[in-house]
Amino acid sequence: MKLHALSKNLEKMEQNTKNSNIFLGTTLSISEVIFTTIITGLVKFIAGESSVFMILFFRYLFCIPLLLFFAIIQRGRDTFLIKSTIGLAIRTITGLATFGTLFAALQFIDLSLMTTLLQTIPLFVTIFAPILIKEVVGWFRRAIALVGFIGIILILNPENGGWFNIGIILGLACPLFGALMLVFVRKLGQTDHPTSIALWYNISGAITFFLICILNGIQWPRSSDLLFILIIIGFVSGLQQMCLAHSQILAPVSL
Q1: Contacts by residues 143-147 (CB-CB < 8 Å, ≥ 24 positions apart)
Q2: Which residues contact 150 (CB under 8 A, 6 or more apart)?
Q3: How many whole angstroms separate alpha carbon 243 and alpha carbon 255?
Q4: What is the pLDDT of residues 222-240, one digit of tens each?
Q5: What sign has the CA pseudo-torsion 87, 215, 67, 79?
Q6: pLDDT tens for each residue of 188-202
Q7: What contacts 191, CB < 8 A, 6 or more positions away?
Q8: CA 110: distance to chain centroid?
Q9: Helix, strand or coil for residue 62?
Q10: How many whole angstroms separate alpha carbon 52 and alpha carbon 40?
């Protein structure tokens, strides 16, 4: 009887811990969406003043100090240690593609439309998660994602011929890559520390877009106001990356 009672208590504790992790993961995920919305708004605000590649360079560069600070505190000498290099490479490529298409799309379409297109991420996640990481996604969650997707189609109103332009194509590519990124962040989190993952990803992004800016002779920001906004984008992106990385560890990606 005592062993049975002890077993029940342990199960209850495990369930409480799981529920607590899901609550924290969901909270971080919502915070990540808020930070992404702030970043998107700032990018749209300066879209006509700076090259998308320069914006991306600053976005990745000024992420690094915050992530490096937390990585050193959390991991010490293992700050840059990664076990799954292939997983990190896939996460990096999909992440760069996500923000690259997002920032590029904002050069052509309204912020409200881009925000709407981002809501297709749950549909793509419910498709990719069972295939790529064998995560169980219930029919109720799939149905809700499908309802949301139908709502987005109604908002886009394809009868007005608004589908076939570069902004819409980039805008739809962004959530597609974003869903793949979320799935691989979840998978990579099973073997590696989220802060180290985010740090390597942003270092790779900063180097990539720095080289693109140099090779294309893109003009560096001359206005102090523009420079300030670019730095803010980078700092807020650091917060967004922290929330993204840790939320995928604590809660199922489809949730």
Answers
A1: none
A2: none
A3: 15
A4: 888 999 999 999 999 999 9
A5: positive
A6: 888 898 889 989 999
A7: 83, 84, 87
A8: 20
A9: coil
A10: 12
